[in-house]
Amino acid sequence: MIRTFILALAAFIAAAPTPVFPQEKIRVVTTSADLKSLVEAVGGDQVEVESLAAPEQDPHSVEVKPTQLARLRGAALLVKIGLDHEPWLARLPAPHVPVVDASKSVRLLQTETPRLRAERQAHVHAFGNTHYWLDPNNARPITASILEGLIELRPGSKSLFEANREAFHARLDEKIRAWEAALKPYRGTKAIVVHDSWIYFADHFGLDIVAAAEPSPGVPPSPAELAMLLARMQESGVRLLIADPHSNPALVRYIAEKSGAKTVTLLPSGTDYIGLFDEDVRRLSAALKAD
Ligand SMILES: [Zn+2]
């Protein structure tokens, strides 16, 4: 009886395909929703990603909750924007997790602007402008860094990650052509921004950012600086003011009223990288079309 059972079992084991156990997901923590979206694009179903900052939050002043801190400690990988973009991250206890610093692979803008450098203090773009994900072409170097980080953790999934990344970029490249076409009529449009978040976006789509209302990133303008800004707007014929969702509404209203410029609030961050540009291109063309 037992012998029969063993034989049957042996036959069953021989016939059955090698059991495939679902692989445990790689737990990744990112500092922004945009990075989360890009990690998911490369990692697919092999990753479980959490962003420390919500897209509507000011990315430079994030309060990390205890549950997020625990999650960060238990993560296999941390992906960050780097430079002085996340001064709040440097203030957390070191999580001892491998880090992908996406800024390492990107060509930075405004690196020559002389500013006080203090990585643990305010976000002042001291090492160059950190809002680089807003040029959609920069997704390529960013996903290249992410790919490298994921392959290091799970070499067996290398070709899967590479295929995911290629599929994502094929989709993104097509979208980039559509966005460029939608904004083509507005190339050369002069604009002022509140926070200097839009230089990469402007560089890609051909907008001309004349000035930022914040004299230094994160610093509100004094009355004298505001007067200078308004004079400059008039001199250069600036008709567009680009605000962020977390810009000071009183400041935005004041500049719009005094200058007569049209305000458009663009989203600097989103839960879906492609959806973010869809929305910003839609908002921008709607604002400029009406002119
Ligand atoms: Zn900034």
Per DSSP E runs of 2 or more residues, the count of β-strands stands at: 8
Any idea what the radius of gyration is?
Answer: 24 Å
Proportion of helical residues: 40-55%
Low-confidence stretches: none
Strand proportion? 5-15%
| Shape field | globular
Distance between the termini: 88 Å
Broad structural category: alpha/beta
Sketch the topology as an H/E string, one letter per element: HEHEHEHEHHEHEHEHEH
Which hetero ligands occur in this complex?
zinc ion
Strands side by side in the biggest sheet = 2-1-3-4
Look at the structure and give the mean pLDDT: 90
The biggest beta sheet is recorded as: 4 strands, parallel
Count of helix runs: 10
Tell me what the structure shows.
- It is a single chain.
- With 291 residues, this protein is an alpha/beta fold.
- The protein is 44% helix and 12% strand.
- It has ten helices and eight strands.
- The strands form two sheets. The chain has a four-stranded parallel beta sheet with strand order 2-1-3-4, with helices on both faces. The protein has a four-stranded parallel beta sheet with strand order 6-5-7-8, sandwiched between helices.
- Helix 7 links the parallel strand 5 (190-193) and strand 6 (208-212).
- The longest helix is centred in the middle third of the chain and has 26 residues, at 158-183.
- The mean pLDDT is 90.
- The structure holds zinc ion.
- Zinc ion (ZN) is lined by residues 123, 125, 130-131, 195-197, 217.
- The site of zinc ion has 8 residues, from loops.
